[in-house]
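The following record pairs a protein chain with its ligand, iron/sulfur cluster.
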Amino acid sequence: MKRSMTLTYEVGSGLYINITNKCPCNCTFCIRNNGDGAYGSDPLWLEHQPTAEEIINDIKKRDLSKYSEVVFCGYGEPTCELDILLTVADYIKSVSSIKTRLNTNGLGNIINKRSIEADFRGRLDTVSVSLNAPTKEEYDEVTRPSFKDTDCFAAMFEFAQNVKNYVGEVMFTVVDVIGEEKIELSRRLADKAGIKLRVREYISG
Ligand code: SF4
């Protein structure tokens, strides 16, 4: 039996958009690694890669005026499907003045093999980048990226700094389970870059 896929879902006052399952990381705390491990039974696991049209048709069923923001998030890394992300963001901006946010691992430049920051001008209001850890070593341990010969920590950091030129607000996030000491070091690092740090609550499946 073909089950319907969850392309949009509500979290608090936001409307979340689930673009793709793809991600080059394998974070130890990722919700994909929690739960019962059986993606097929999880409503956010996409059975096929949706097209921009499918996602837009799903958004059309929603009343955007009900929400405080639209968030590109979901079960994978949205910049893995950059064209879809941009097309959907264009659609949202063409029909509504609602704020748009991207939650990203910040590796979009490596994923797309080019600098993508300028693509977000006029399309996103906020970019939230997962800093995850205060050092490259700890970052690699936690995120386990598949790009072995690349300094992903540096690439993520550079992306966050560059994207400030194109969107209204950029923030870094860490999950609270990394502990006070690492949170403080992360905060100092974020401060140096002039980027706000948000400490997210760890959600286990
Ligand atoms: S970057 Fe996000 S989607 Fe990818 S493994 Fe980490 S937490 Fe999961």
